[in-house]
Amino acid sequence: MVDVTVPDADYEPYNNRQLALVPLAVLVLALVVIGGRYVMDGTPVELGFAFTGGSEIRFTAGASLEQVRATFQGVTVDSIQPASGETFILTTQVTDTAAIEELIRGAGYEVQQVQSRSATFGSSAQQQTLVGLGVAFLGMSVLVGLMFRTFVPSVAVIVSAFSDIVIPVAVMNLLGMELTLGAVAALLMLIGYSVDSDILLNNHILRRRGSFYESAYRARRTGVTMTLTSISAMAVMGTVSAVLTIPLLPAVGLILAVGLTVDLMNTYLLNMSLLRYYKYEGVAK
Q1: Mind listing the pLDDT tens digit for each residue in 208-225?
Q2: CATH architecture of structural domain 121-280
Q3: How does DSSP assign 21-35, residue by residue?
Q4: CA dihedral over 133, 135, 140, 142, signed as positive or negative
């Protein structure tokens, strides 16, 4: 087994504002990216087939991706992506796909599956996703508030969780990734991961014996080890699934790897600064 050694970090030379500066700056930048996307396109992130409606055609072709895309030049399609082996997935806003299917067969390709969703269904999926994320975040906030019953430690967890979701969404925009059902699942998982590491830190500092920095080190030793293990697992999953062209998993792996990396920054810089303020300068003084 690989031994992950977490070195002791010296927080004392830095004041709370310095610790919180980088996480907050990254969060503000992410909000700017998302806000710019919303102003230009009306959505905070590019929506996938499940949220826009239209049609998805799965077909096999003994040709490269470039050759397949050349086949559909001049045809109204949103994207053509490899699925697995010689299978490709074509998405389009068109619900009547008879002409596209005829073009596919005329090129010598074989249509495997056709799925169509109305724009109304896509709009409903958008609303359900927003409600689901909102309920999950609200439930997390209420649970954290009941656990700690103090303002600053509760806010530290909530702000960190919020940032852990917002920054990966901004990265999705920068990489041109679509919001799929798999991406939504990854964002929901990030709420759980974030709360887990933040509560671990809060519990050690507020409820365990020992000095502030001793408690912080014990929490970091456990939390960083768990998070680095998860990041490695997500990176491997994303890389392998991308090589094998497995749908959804590459995006899920990337989102989780980015979110968990961000969680390290938010937990041990932003959350740490708020807890230290609470412990020495805030209400707990």
Answers
A1: 777 888 888 888 988 899
A2: Up-down Bundle (1.20)
A3: HHHHHHHHHHHHHHH
A4: positive
